[in-house]
Amino acid sequence: MAERPYIVGNWKMNGTRAMLAQARSIDRAAQNLMKVEVALAPPFTLIHPVHREAEQIGVGAQDCHPLPDGAHTGDISASMVADAGAKFVILGHSERRQNHGESNALVREKGTAAIDAGLRIILCVGETEETRDDGKAESFVTRQFKASLPETLASPEESLTVAYEPVWAIGTGRTPTVEEIGAMHRAIRATLVELYGEAQGTAVRILYGGSVNAENARELLAADEVGGALVGGASLTAESFLGIVLAAAERLDQPA
Ligand SMILES: O=C(CO)COP(=O)(O)O
User: What stretches pass through the bilayer (predicted)?
Assistant: First the structure.
């Protein structure tokens, strides 16, 4: 695992101001676990309130529009989430690809807009169960990843995190094996090195996401090339999320 693991909670369409107590607890605990980088991506409505609570953890958005402003009712731009306190944005999540028909090309445009607005991006990729059963998971994800990335990235290490989230593992309680995760993460790593060279390509963190919880985190975080986790359901309470953060911290203390 990378030197400083990155554990990110994606609250999806969950959370009202009552959830701020969870964010506060997570932030306070993270202050004693500095060797793990902890972040939350609440819904748009809570970005600024969570930002105001957070002394230690990073705050991000779950999406942004590719344009900076204009007549786009109901949309939120990258500079708007940055203004609210977001430091990063999750892009290309499979729920957006499925529910909003987001193409690789649109994800790429959003990524470019986010970087221009000074945000880091967490770019999500992942195959469906059918694609995995066909034996095409790695080739699919590699192609999806290349086509979703912003065309140029001045500093991939600073601006990019990749999240491998198999669609069939999200919210299902099912996860790939450690070997399957390792194989996919090695394929993504090889693509990063091909695109950005050895030094930059090896410095980008690759997170695993999909049914990560406090019980399985230790095992999943031990897979090859896993630099942290993107967590959905188990990030909604401080107790379960901090269990994952602790697993990441303990993993660091063990020999490889
Ligand atoms: O989609 C996810 C995080 O972005 C994973 O969600 P779950 O952890 O609920 O499976």
Answer: none
Q: Which CATH superfamily is domain 6-253 in?
A: Aldolase class I (3.20.20.70)
Residue 65 is classified by DSSP as B
- From the alpha carbon of 124, which atom of ligand 1 is closest? 4
pLDDT tens for the chain, 256 residues long, are 447 999 999 999 999 999 999 999 999 999 999 999 999 999 999 999 999 999 999 999 999 999 999 999 999 999 999 999 999 999 999 999 999 999 999 999 999 999 999 999 999 999 999 999 999 999 999 999 999 999 999 899 999 999 999 999 999 999 999 999 999 999 999 999 999 999 999 999 999 999 999 999 999 999 999 999 999 999 999 999 999 999 999 987 775 5
Spacing, Cα 3 to ligand 1 middle (Å): 23
Domain ranges of the chain: 6-253
Cα-atom radius of gyration of the chain, to the nearest Å?
A: 17
**pTM, full prediction:** 0.97
Instruction: Please calculate the CA angle 144-105-100 and round it to the nearest 5 degrees.
Output: 90
Question: Could you tell me how far CA 197 lies from the centroid of its own chain?
Answer: 22
214 vs 18, 170, 183, 211, CA distance in Å? 23, 15, 23, 10
Q: 3-state DSSP call for residue 72?
A: coil
Based on the residue annotation, tell me whether 51 is a catalytic residue of this protein. no
Give the residue whose CA is nearest to atom 6 of ligand 1. Answer: 232
Q: Which of 61, 161, 149 has the alpha carbon at shortest distance from 108?
A: 149
Would you say how long the chain is, in residues?
256
Integer Cα distance of 95 and 63 in angstroms: 11
